[in-house]
Model the fold of this input.
Amino acid sequence: MRTRRTTLAATVAIASLALAACGGDEADETAAGPPVAEAPEFEPGTTMAELAEAGTITVGTKFDQPGFGLENLEGEVEGFDVEVAKIIAAELGIAPEDIDFVETPSAVREEVIEGGEVDMVVATYTINDERRERVSFAGPYYVAGQQIMVRSDNTTITGPESFMENPDATVCTVTGSTPSENIRPYLASEQEQLVLFDEYSQCVDALSNGTVDAVTTDNVILLGYVAESDGAFKLVGEQFTEEPYGIGIERGDVAFCEFINETLAENEEAYVEAWESTAGQVEGAETPELPEPAPCS
Amino acid sequence: MDAVTENLDDYVSGFLTSLSIILWSLVGSLVLGMLIAACRVSPVPPLQRFGAFWVTTFRNTPLSVVLFFCAFGLPELGVIRSFFFFGVLGLVLYTSAFVCEAVRSGINSVSAGQAEAARSIGLNFTQSLRFVVLPQALRTVVPPLGSVIIAMFKNSAVVGAFGVGGDLWSTGLTLTSARGYETLPVFIGVALGFLLITLPAGALLHVIERKVAIAR
Done:
């Protein structure tokens, strides 16, 4: 597996370079982040009181998702998810440098919450009912939508429906991701049409050398690749899903969930700034409005 | 084990995909491996050198690298096929080197004296091969070849990481990450799927070994 590791490392390195290159001075602005609350008061016994008392918080996030959570060359993670975590921590009186970010790939997100290894997970974490059986979600703080990316010269694929009409057309996405589940009903044959890799960068390679005809995932991720491709790729069709990203916390912690929702609602300005300094830097990305929070349970 | 029973359909289709990777690779690597072994023991020097080069290359390259070259290198050279094809091809190339060496060791284990003795008691070439050389060679080859084949069965899980969606391994990842099932039961299910293939294969090899066993 040595080479695959190296590829991953190289991809991460290149991506963070690219991000650093276009991030530049904005990164310094967000380093300040929202003002950290001084000695906030919480009801004793709540998660907030415990965290404020401890003065640190452990947050699970992705380390390989450009725009949302990506480890840079200095070993710090940056992205929209990271900034959202900072907003919440600030309200608890915890400074950004006291947040302990832990890498949390998709497969272990429920496990680390149930095991108490992290206090919350902010990791492009789509809220769904299966996951609700194991963890609780605050938010959503962002609603992504799945879309399709093809080579610019492709005229046969015009949206997810095209895969039924063109049983030869193949589509690539990441193993075990929500996009891989969402695209299944649109395919004439999973065996023939669905190509799965560990990382989106491999799908993009396969798209550019012609082994697959399309790549599908959340639009913000695709927009990043379209911007990088110099006109080689384009997005087709409308967004055909809604992926509400939530903040995973221990199941049943209603007080903490409500606290997070209130915090986000009160810090609209910091929220917009967080977006614009990270995922919003990709050309074509629209600044979202904070979605209506789902009821806490 | 709800995770397994609720998603039995996915497990079955994952199992079948893995099984077809395995069967194609089994046929491919046995045929190719024997051809390469024939090259290595042949009296023709260029063929010997070709066989040695083949074994050196593929035996000393990690499987993931071979698969990587098949899945991402060949398309750059204009070979556009499915990732299933690339995956099986990579596994066949890699395994053929090991099959070749196992087969060659068997052939070399039968001393020239055996063949000479067979000739001297009046057996013709076919008879000496049929009754003297091959039975002994086979007996030596079965255990190492069996290990190579079972290792190949398990290596087929690596193919799942190179674009082949829906083999047992990616089915496990889909269940844990996308659908939020607990990791342990899901991957116990994956392991059971592989055992369903490897255990009968092991038993079959044992039967074959006993069949060809001759007291020396």
Notes: Chain B has one domain: 2-212.
